[in-house]
Fold these 3 entries.
Entry 1:
Amino acid sequence: MLEVRELQAGYPGGNVLRGITAQFASGQVTGILGPNGCGKSTLLKVLAGLHKPSSGRVLLDGLSVPDLPPKQAARRIAYLPQSRNIPEITALRMVLHGRFCYLSYPRRYRPQDYAAARQALAWIGATDLADKSVAELSGGQRQKVYIAMALAQNTGIILMDEPTTYLDIRNQLEVMQLARRLAELGKAVVMVAHDLNAILQHADHVLVMDAGRIAADGSPDEVYASGKLQQVFGVAVHAADTPEGRQYYCLSLPLQESIPGK
């Protein structure tokens, strides 16, 4: 179980996260929603052990994440940032990076590392990409390769920061489906996103953040029923029951026009 208790964290000038308490269960997709600047990405970095909290606790199965040596943390938690450099290497070599935390000196990949990387590419249905340059892949293909890298890392926790950004709708849906499949493997998948519809549709657990605090915490239906989405985002969120299950959609609220002098 990954959890934070009374977490505060930030940068010079003040805290961005203000008293966050939350749990991220294995076998579930947790979606983190919130407006720009509310602390979503900072929370993900703290969970990954990449950013030190100013107070509070970050625990993984009772162990303090900030106190874990980097190699041990990397064997437990995989982190996919929102943006990254695109190297001129093959997809297989990219996926092999997920095995780096298992290597001892000298850093040479072993047969079992290649096997894990190829198995991860096969799991996402991208075996045909193994020998292609990452720089030449489409955005959707590249995101699948990064997910394969996290899978090859063989961690119980996978953190994703805006994994569907800049992807077309088909690739967005494929990434969300891959996140669900990772959860079915027993992993705790934590995903920061701006797409309310996608998170409400595919996540098991939803956190809504506002100004560095948790505004709502629960299942998609519970968060929807709380009315906090409308309050935080300023949009009307509706639900409709269909043969494929409950679907959510958003509508803009009427603009409140002010009349000068009144």
Entry 2:
Amino acid sequence: MRVLITGAAGQVGQDFCDVLSGLIPGGGKATALLGTDPVAEGEFELIPCDVAQFDLTNHDHVATNIAQAAPEVIVHLAAYTAVDRAEEDPKGAQELNVNATRYVNDAAQACGAHLVYISTDYVFAGDLGRAMVESDETNPLSVYGATKRAGELACDPSATIVRTSWVAGLRGKNLFHLATGAAQDGRALRFVDDQVGTPTNAADLAAGLVAFVRERPSGVFHVAGSGQASWFETIQFAVEAAGGSPDQVSAISTAELDPQPLATRPAFSPLLSERLGSVGLVPLPDWHEGVERLVRAIELRDHRS
């Protein structure tokens, strides 16, 4: 199966390319592919694309490149993800999250490819006091959230829309690299305890996406680590998993952050799926397990380097 991946150089993109190649991202243990079979050798032919080589904001460029590649499935991972910067650069967020998604969708329709679009919990306001399910009304609070929701609406009804939450992986720099380093040098950290979501290991998300490439269901699905936690709880657990003390991490409120973030985040936006079972799929592993595996992968990489 020919699979074209936009944003292939990103943290999820690199893990996803590994999974489709039959590799285990970060060298950790294999994760369940949402209840489906492991990837067989030669099952997928990858067409990895990154924004540096594939101008997603140019309609003709997208149409020509996708037509020439002739994929059977397109997984659209590329996005403008700088949440705070988007508040000052709404045009940039619009171009990549909305316009580019529309171009990719049009090209997918033209060549008969199934589109899998990756979205976010930030399409919700997070004001219901419970986990969000696919049928809940969206109400984004930020430019980033609004453009990702508009990207969802730019997709054909036949497309798969996968919403995920608080994704972090081995590649690049993120808060779990910070937590692992703090565990080693004893640094004190402060994280907010009034933003609650669903921590998701990028490798688990990548493994889960295989099921959507194979099955090609239509509509919205929530795919994130199981359970919920605040940022304070998440980083405290990560520091302890890396051998540090939970006392290194203290809780603060969002109002205490200095400087204040430009974008408003949903206060309570864990994701829960009411649709995975309808297509024979199972949830991702518990967030504790995903975070612990990520910490181990970071430690292993740092030790090797």
Entry 3:
Amino acid sequence: MILYFSGTGNSLAISRQLAERLGEQVLPLNLAVKRDLSQERRIGLVFPCYWFNAPRAVTELLPRLQLPKDAYVFIVIPCGAQAGNAIWTVRRMLAAKGIDVAYSHKIRVPDNSAVGFGRNPNDQVWKFDRYAGRLERIAADIAAGVHRCHYAWWGLAGALCAIPAVQRRTLPMLTPAVNLDKCIACGICRDVCPQDNITIVDGKALCGTDCAQCLACVHFCPQQAVELNSKTTPQAHQYHHPKVMVADMC
């Protein structure tokens, strides 16, 4: 079983590709916590790196997972460049549950958070050609039951980004808000939000307080009505994995 958390489809697409090669099934992490997975012999965790660490949505769900202690557990991190402390953090959390991570790796993908800094994630699609080979090597390693954790060390950048004072200053840069003048209440932002953090009230979309900064709402909004720092994301800068559509994320 491969469990994933995904905002714009990178983790979902990689989970599907690994599942196809390994003969596994895929399941969103927020649904996996409702399942008894204690009989699974192999468990994969696929999730992005946010601010040099595992997304809060992942670390909040992990303690609720019912996982066998003797399963072959692997982690794959789709990330723009660095895996940060994401693997290190999750390994520690699973170790506290008596579960060892056998294998970990990362795959570089277009960074959807680039829009928060005025850049276009679609300028990074060249990474797809490069990640194909690494994905094949990762799948072969997992199929062979290799025990090796890549990119699993602690790093200073991840530690600094976890400081509450730093997060209070930086997270607003990647916390979306709806421009009500542009919103047409189509409901797409609500449907793709993995946190169920968006509701439609009186014909307008409203963001709650449980945002994961995955930016799914920003990238999938057809009206470009979900903004960062009160700035519109141009349609040309909206990104999602080319093999993942709105229906896949809902």
